[in-house]
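Hello, quick one for you while I still have it in my head. No rush at all, and the record is pasted right below.
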Amino acid sequence: MSNPGSIPSLQPEREDCHVQAEVQTESRRMSREQILVLIATASVNFSSMICYSILGPFFPGEAEQKGASDTIIGMIFGCYALVNVLFSLILGKYIVQVGAKFMFVGGMFLSGGCTILFGLLDRAPDGPIYIAMCFVVRTVDAVGFSGAMTSSFAVLTKSFPQNVATVMGTLEIFTGLGLVLGPPLGGILYEKFGYEIPFIVLGCVVLLMVPLYMYTVPTYDDLPIRESFWDLFRIPKISLMCLVMLSLSSALTFLDPTMSLFLIEKFHLSTSFVGLIFFAIALPYSISAPLLGYLADKFPATRKWMIIFGSLLTGICYVFLGPAPFFHIKSSIWLFSIMMVVLGISTSMTGIPVFPEILESAYKNNFEEGLSTLGLVSGLFGAVWSLGTFIGPTLGGYLNEKLHFEYAAAIQGGIALVIGAAMGIFYIAENYQEKRSSVRNTNSADEEQEPLLPNRV
């Protein structure tokens, strides 16, 4: 016969389990604030990328008619990335003083206004005045973009501290959509309504969303920290992560000035078909990014292997994109398309885990958890990515002109392979060092437990 007193004794344990289950269920649900932050950052990713990519189909031709040379047009595109590098660092450092919400809202307001102004530049006089106005508007637009993106990364990480990679991976769907839809949408509006309408329409849409950002983006307060970007960058692991991001962003933007020329010359494809090839990298990237982000958060130990294999796979894809002449493999549109699909997956595999890895490394090196550190990490992340977007087209155009696409792509792939191998060596050394320190700690703990005096018989 069972003891009646044992039944009440199980009741508190059952209540505790029930409470824990309720807490876990609540933790899985997004709060209202998190949902609003997700909506705001998704719209920023989409609108910023669509405004950035809209220039491609028609601006170079318009600028040439206004007296700008090919070199000047390239510099107009390139100055955007360089200004992003500088102001991502500045605004990331002073995000607490400026305020993350003000930086977010103000950045999008500035970007929307500059988009409209850029559409009115066709009314400026031809020659130096037009060129100078292009540089001014593009520069101010880059300041707004860097502020919005730096603060959005910080706000997003603050709102989702346990699911950074998952949320960032999900938002990359909207980034990919913006980059893919920008050129065709801009081309259609340009053909139907002329130069001004594409910029005015998109700029007005961005400005109309500013009140949404004012309502949805939360206000976070924090105290400034003493550490600087140099303190963050000189951490060996973070330095290597920056090289990974630099290699990845330069590899992706390497294709901008080179891919279409190669496909048209080699396979005699139409411009519309070349545009479809861009979907071959954007679609798998957008699909794989949320899944890989979830895996990176669910199994943090896999992040380093994702970065290593993603970098190596990216390098292999570029080597076979041409393919490299020393393989003596005939170029084919099918091989090119397959490499582009794999490249989309390897890009998300490499890029998505980098931000949480940098953040974790900063915390392990005694950076305080808070908005200030998030601002530093977001600013460094954005600056390195923007630097790569400047180097990629510049170096790619030069190598393509001197060596042709096959060798240029192979060199780009070789850089990714070297950096991926360096990351692998670093992680192996790091694991070895951690095991040695763990053994030392265990031995020292055993020594402390030994009695100071021997036992007397």
Notes: The CA atoms of residues 73 and 134 lie 10 Å apart. Confidence is low (pLDDT under 50) at residues 1-10, 12-27.
